[in-house]
Amino acid sequence: MSSKVPTQNSLRHVLFGSLIGTTIEFFDFYIYANAAVLVFPQLFFPGTDSATSVLQSLATFSIAFFARPIGSAVFGHYGDKIGRKTTLVVALLTMGISTVCIGFLPSYASIGIAAPILLMLCRFGQGVGLGGEWGGAVLLAIENAPPHKRAWYGMFPQLGAPIGLILSGGTFLALTNCMNSQDFLDYGWRIPFIASSLLVLVGFYIRLKITETSAFENAKKEQEEVKLPFVTLLKSYRKELFFGTFAAVTTFVIFYLMTVFMLNWNTNELQLSNQEALLIQLFSVLFFACFIPISALIADKIGRRKMLIYASLAIAVFGLFFAPFLNSGSSIQVTFFLCVGMMLIGFTYGPLGTFLSELFPTTVRYSGASLTFNLAGIIGAAFAPMIAIWIATNYGLNFVGYYLSVAAVISVISLLVISKKEHQF
Fold this sequence. Notes:
By secondary structure, this protein is mostly helical. Helices cover about 80% and strands about 0% of the residues.
């Protein structure tokens, strides 16, 4: 059976299979982010203070980041034990079912406190699913890649993030343009959550057609399997877990400042309409998407670690310009600022999956890469929008930028400390 893997796993199947899954997962993940700013404060957290409602809504947004390491541990265990393919299919279904359920939830006005509780449970399910999905999708790509093209292959699942963001933002933009605000609030916001079931079915079909990676099959054939991958990680790869996590923190901080925080800033502080704010964000995401492949090409030339160091240093400088641009009151300057931020995210996000995967051997790679990535999500993203809103309100935008710059410096230090050794594939 293993001898057939190279011919069955064609380049087209591998790259499209890794891309389609992460696109669906991130679409599901981001429609929640949009709804958490535009809809959920009114429907699930009504109150006299709109700012408090937004913060409560964003608190449920953060739940998924705490669920993601659980998904990493559970799906990572089975991904390293029974294989990447089956685990990826189950992770996709977990995310998809959780997302569709959100589309059918009654509001606070209908069932009271049970509404936000059910919303939190569904958000938890989204986090568990994405926690298992990301690592497997990256491994599907890079474990089928030639050594000199690992970053290039590894950037295909990373492209799922901007594509999912474009699809989610575009869906909300189309809905807000096609219906009045009351209809959108009553039922329109539910459409993307329910319609995501169609995307999940497509992803499910494609994932079933993909066979196991040769790296996993070879490790299994040579009986290199470990009994408890998670325990082995904590025992033998603590340094990789710790510094790999902080190396990835900046990517999460800047991403959620440029998306959730900026969407809230543009609609509440700059008083832009939902349509204008979403349009600006969608335009900026194109820069995110374009610079992911560019960064991967550079990373394959100079090394993944160096690429991340340079990108993190650039982000540290970028953080110093928050106040001048966002306090300008000019939508043009805000758009320019957002585009530069998205470009920098592309530079750091493109090689990140490959870099984290190369820190671990095949036998614990699914668990290691997933857990590192998702722990970074807790530290760098779970509360980033809320922290940024609080800092901006109490200390001003300058300190929001300093918050980002400090995170970038921490990532640079971690990247300098972490071992240059790459494990064999």
